[in-house]
Each structure stands twice: as structure tokens, then as C-alpha cells.
Amino acid sequence: MQENKKTTITKISTRIVICIMVLFLLSVIGCAIAIKCGATGLFKMDHDIETQVYEVNHDDPFLQKLYKGYNNGIYSAENHVDAYSKELLLGRHKMVEAAVTYKNLIGWKIYAPGEYNSILYLDDGYMANANGKESAEAIQKIATKIKGLKDTAEAAGAQFFYMQTPGNVDKYGDPKVNNVKDFANYNADLLIEDLEGYGISCFDLRDNIHESFDDYHSLFFKTDHHWRQPVALWATSELSVYLNDQYHLGFDPEIYAADKYHVEVREKYYLGSLGRRATLAAAEPDDFEILYPEFDTDITFTMENKDIHKRGDLTVTYDYAEMEEPDIYWRECYLSLLSFYGTGLATVENNVPPNDTYILIVGDSLAIPMTSLLALNCSRVEIIDPRYFEGSIKEYVTEQKPDFVISTYSTTIIQDYYAIFDF
Questions:
Q1: Is residue 123 part of a domain?
Q2: If we measure between CA atoms, which residue out of 81, 93, 87 comes closest to residue 44?
Q3: pLDDT at 46
Q4: Which of 171, 226, 290, 316 has its CA 20 to 30 A from that of 334?
């Protein structure tokens, strides 16, 4: 009799689990069908879905095109399923909040190296990414791609260098995490070594940070892998000094002095990408700072694929509508510093330029606040994120002929499979 009861309970439990799995799969399929049918307004993500890992060229052999197309299809399918199940599933935030609350109760802190925005919980309340250790071959592959961009830039008459921006794990600290649970700095060091082997100049901001700041983590948001805008202001000053030292441009680093800017602080206002994954059950929103120059600026800001063409002071680059989204889970403050949500190219022109220097930045989102600030010292600055740029970046460089091309990546993004290194 007891055995029959156990069998019945097992059957009921199994059926419940199967029903939950079926409902979950139906929800995922439903989201996918809705998106494909054009119901994009019902769903929103904090990043675009990557669909390409290989660039298919017209002159590729047929078998190579087939191989690349097959891998792109698999990559796209995996990312769509991952996005629908992790970010677009109805009620996801409430489910994750409940799960995180339970994990906190039992003291279970887990991390998954290499997963997009995977989380490490640092001792001082900050969150960081957990990045896996890349092979020497994988890093060499990235270096070779960057060298290809450098060759194109120099053929177009541009100066080229690589700028290493930091991740939120300290290269010179965080002994419990750095090269133990997170290998972002290890990967970056390998990349710089390979790039220098190709004769590419490298500007490593991690060294400047080590010399200038005592509290490394405070440079970043607690819930995000990006740096705060006042820190980006400092970094732009350091970049200006580097440009002066290496290329004798005569930029004015003093234009980035902190006392020349008013800082608006929105308290407990921003939940970054790491915080959104952890949910409010485990993350407290960050204060968000917005800079306003206390001197006159005259900027033209253009983003063709968003039909943006505005002229005014530096604030024309800010997207207040996105910044003031009522739902904190979808309030993308950081990207709003350059209206860079869901696009691949932005142009900032200085209408009263101190010189005629034109700089093109090719890289990731840490360069977003630096782009508009750097334009205060020259004629034109553009930023391209290869993941979302439609077309060939190499062709764009050849056609536009910038004076400088700066390739720049955070340590957290130096991973072999990223489409962000396809130019």
C-alpha cells in the first residue's frame, strides 16, 4: 500500500514538472512567433540579439560560405532562444526575484564564467562579470582581426592605435577573483602582447587608473560593468594627453577638469545589466550621474538609422526618454548618454572646433560617454559598435578617411566568439 502511494506521488510530481516544462516551451515559442510577426512593441531587451559570428564575403569559396552560413544560423538560433527564455519571458523578473531570494536565504552564490553578463558578487557590494580564460589561439585570432582594421586605416591615411579600457575587476587587485574566477585581465594582457607583436601602439588605461585611483570599484556602477560618466570624463582627459604626447595634436586636457561640469545626481535610479539579472531581490539601484558643461558647447548629433539630427549643447546627445523609462528594469541610463540604444553608428560634430581633427572609434560601449566628450577637443568624433553596424567598417574607413581610428574594448568583452571583432 505504501509502495502504491509513493508511485502515485511520483507520477503526479512527474506530470507537474512536465506541464511546467511544456508551458515554459510554449511561452518561449510564443515570444519567438510574436517577434517574427512584428510584435516588437510587446517586448524589450537591454541589448540587441547577436545573429552573426562569421562575416560572409562575396568572394568566399562556396563551401566556406556554406560553413559560415550554417554556423551563423546555429549562433542566431541559440541567441534567440536564450533571449526569449531569459529576458522576454512574461513574468521573468518576478520568477527570478523569487529564485534569488531563495538563494540568498541559503547563502548560495554561483557564477558561470563566459556567460553573457554572468555575475560575481564582490565583498564590498559590487557586482562583476565572470569571464572565462581564453586560449592563446583565440586571442591571437582577435589580434589578427584588429591588425586587419589597422592595415585598412593606415591605407586610408589614418593613424591607428588600440585603447584598453578596464573591466570592473582590478588588474592589480581583487586577489580572490582576478585570474581565479575571472580572467578578463589575463585575456586583455594576452591581446596587448599580440597587438604589440604586430607593431600596433597600445594605450592601456588600466595602468593610468592604477596610478590615479585608490578605490578601484568606485569607478564603476555597483550593478553594471560600465564606468560612471565622471570617470569617463577623467579617461577622456587621459586620452587627450596620450594623443598630445604621441601625435602632438595640442588638445586641451583642462577642458575635462571636474570643476568645469555640473553633476546632476539621480539617487538610487539605475539598475545596470548585472543588477537586472540579479533583480531587485539581490541588487540595490545605483545613483546615476549626468554631466553638464559649465561652458558653451555647440554640437551637431547624428544617428542616421534612428533619424536623429539635432543641434544644440552637449545635451543633444542625451536620450532623456530612454533615461526616464518608468520601469527600472528597462531604464537604460548608461546607453542614453549617447542615445546609443539599439544602433551601431553615432556622429558628434563640434560646430566651433579648435582644430579639424576627425576621430573614428571602433569598439564597445565603454567608449560611449567618451565619444561626445572627446568631440569638445576636435572637429568630429564617431563611434561604431561592430555588432550593430550595418555594412563593412573597413569600407567605411576607406570612404570617410578619418585622421585617427581608435580600436577599443573593455577587458570584459575580449572573447573569441564575439561578432564585435568582425570589421
A1: no
A2: 87
A3: 45
A4: 171
